[in-house]
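In response to a reviewer's request, we include the raw inputs and outputs for one of the modeled complexes. The two entities were modeled together in a single run.
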Amino acid sequence: MKRLLCVVTLMLMAANMAQAEEIAVIGGSAALDKFEAVLKIEPNNLKYGNDYRQVVIKINKVEMYNRCIAFFENLTAENPKAPNAWMNYGYAFVDKIPVEGAITQVLLANTALGHFSTALALEDTWLGHYTRGNSYVYWPAIFGRTPKAIEDLTQAIAHSEKAEKLHSFHVRPYIGLGEAHWRLDDLAKAREVWQDAIQKFPNNEALKKRLSLDDDALTAFLTIHFEPGKRVDTDLTILWEEE
Amino acid sequence: MGINRLWMIGLMTVGLAIAGTSYAEESAWFQDVTAKAGIDFKHNNRSFKNVYGNIMEGYTSLGASVAVADYDGDGFEDLFLTDSEELGKNRLYRNKGNFTFVDVGEKAGVSKGNDATNASANALWFDYNSDRRPDLLVLRFGHNILYENQGDGTFQDVTKKAGLGIPYLNCIVAISFDYDLDGDQDLVLGNYFQPVDLFNPSTPNFFPESFETANNGGGVMLYRNNGGIFEDVTEKAGLQLSGWTLDLGHADVDHDGDEDLYVAADFGTDRLFLNNGDGTFADVTKEAIGIDTKKGMNADWGDFNNDGLFDMFVTNITDEYMREGNFLWQNNGDGTFFDVSRETGTYDTGWGWAGKFFDYDNDGWQDLYVVNGWVSGGKANYVVDIFELIVQPNVDLSDARNWPPMGDKTLSGYQENCLFHNQGGLFKNEAKRHGVNSKLDGRGVAIADFDNDGRLDMYVSNANAKGFLFQNVQPTSNHWVQFVLEASYPSPVGTRVWVQINGQKHVGFVNGGNGFASQSTMRVHFGLGDVAQVEEVEVVWPSGKKQTFENISSNQIYRIEEGKKALKPFKPKNTTATQNGK
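The model returned the following structure tokens for the whole complex.
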């Protein structure tokens, strides 16, 4: 009970401090202190780790990304069986990509993949397969990782089909799977995946957009979408907002 | 930022209006006349006999260079081309005046640049001894050679006499300008590798230590010219760098009367130095352009938006696996620059090398030609090998032994060169239409009016392949004017020329070798569009003196001598070739 109270108190403090204005006033470091304290108590808490990372992104300074990576490095070392700590550890590398040069971006993305794999090895989940599969999609086909994307995203879809309720976020692996086929220059297959998905998610704008474009426009759109160095949305809030 | 956005909106409006203009003639405006002109030259990479040979050969592909000058003073621009193969001969092609050339390299004594311990990497024409004749500096992975122009068609090796018998360097670029305004041409050298003998390295650690922040390259060197003898003043001038220099570009970017310097570096940040006017330079990189981690390969200054300020074009690597994007640094006039490559359509030219500003259609806007491609080889892609290298934990990138062999693999190969037509500040790639979209691995682009017809031609050097001589045959009735400048200081480098047409001033200048692996003409050329008469020409000489001339007729090449009141039509010697394209 005492532990729970401690977590709740710290989280409330952290949540308050995570407001952008607060960060500006008190400096990011203090807000991160609170999140780190909470995560040390609840290392496998996906939400706390996610919120922590979102504060780091708001601060958007190299030293804070480094601090976040170092924190998760220690957290996973101390809690090697906590899949969600590994998951956030991987995302922490993805979050840093926009502030680095082209080669470091590759190294960060590659390291992230390793941590996503560790998370998945510990716990076979929709999120694990979607995250790793979607990461593979970002790699140009020349690196030979697109088939792995297809494999992971197909498994993520299989997970969602077994879920009690189909949530709006379950559309994501469908989008990624189509994009993986686009990577392999199979636009017909990509559209087939998205057509199938839009039956399940008729209001999804991302699907509608992709299906509305002809071959050249789709390639132009996805080339910009996958531009290395662009910030990838790693905010997982949607997972619990719908619950 | 707000001003930049406003400017871009204005620019796009003008650009769209101009884009609506269509030329009746839709045929190619450049013709490949290489063979017809008598140029039969293929650059060949060097094969290394040491254990690093499997990775080193590609680096000598950087040595496919071209340098333009009228070395014999006959009024027609000549060409010097470098090879890199052992015993491969460098060529001096004398322009015979009717768009044909003859190789006089051996006769002139400048063909020997490649032997077992030296590989030619680039060349620069500059007047080292202030006798108003262009001398020739051949840069080498090894020891550079300075040839003095004897004025009789021959050259003499004066390297040691001039104080340039420097120990081993891996020099890749040189430009010359009068940095201290004392009247003679100083020399800036850019070195790629550190001074390790590449043919017999004493250490395996001569490769870049990082892909983004490498500081173990050859840096730059500034040599002050003391009456034909050079003195290393790098440290005194504040130019100590240890990056992997690939190109240098000078211009008076703040119009304060002295020449400033841009250093394009591989594997790390480019640098901008402002000349303090007292023999030293100030590194203004952080405040002017910011710190980058890209692969800077070209540095050319030109006023692409006709605002009277010199802007900078730098090529970087832009491919499926790495999208650095080029820099088109728009000069804001307040000491800062803003990259508008995305907004202007010049962001992606693949793995770019030389990129040169010039007005190929004489419409009054600086166009841009960019060549590209690293190695066009077999089907296997070397990027996969590079990826495996970089993801190894704690790999020592500086150790050449860790780099995978290249074999006949391709890396950013088969890329089409880009000819960007400037449509009021926005660019449209017209390379395919004009037949200049080669997929060879281009390196240098030299711009010159080889037939004195007022249409700017090009020589393109290609790695491990033949080059292209492109004759400009554009059929528009656009007007032009061109200036051959005779400064009181022996060299005109740094002279700025302003022409006023329709109330608007356009600026050009004489550059001393800007742009990767290529030196263009020292003449200053302006396209005038449909304006037949220039309202005013203002010349600002390196001496600081100014001269103005009014109501100048177009479609002429003029000789302007510092201090003389009248403009004279420029006439080539001993030839029947004419001007005005007639």
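As requested, we also summarize the result in words. The two ends of chain B are 48 Å apart (CA to CA). The longest strand of chain B covers residues 169-177.
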